[in-house]
Predict the structure.
Amino acid sequence: MDDIEQQITQSEQLTDAQLTEELAAAVRQEREDLVRVLIHLGEFNHRELSDSKGYPSLFDYCTRTLGYSRSAAGRRIVAAKAARKYPSMLHMVKRAELHLSGAAMLAGHLTSENHRKLLRKASSQSQEAIAALESAAKAVPSLAEPLAREIAEIQAAAGVAGWARELAASE
């Protein structure tokens, strides 16, 4: 029996209370792992290692080598780049106060002046609520910042709905 089959069998034998506890522990671990991935992606990008490994971009490295889908790669890259500048995002992700989608949605709108307030408003909010915050943030032109422009380009390359339209509208 392989490891996955063994885990399935063990899961089937848990009581409801044990299963609930194990699921919560797995989700906590997943968040910690995501934070670690975002930190490493940010540093990998900072060192420009995708270039030295023969990839034209971090996005290509993430999709071709790490096996992420286009949208999963885009969200992680965008969040990693923003978190390098605003590390409080990582603390929020770890504490389940900000999900990856929300971090990626807000990343291009964060500035040194607004990041604390915008992240505080996004804390523990749904994707729909964060979309409303994102819309309000769009009223303040932040795409002139290099990070925001780069993020918009990654989002467009990832093909995530809405992101490509935002990039086209800003040109």
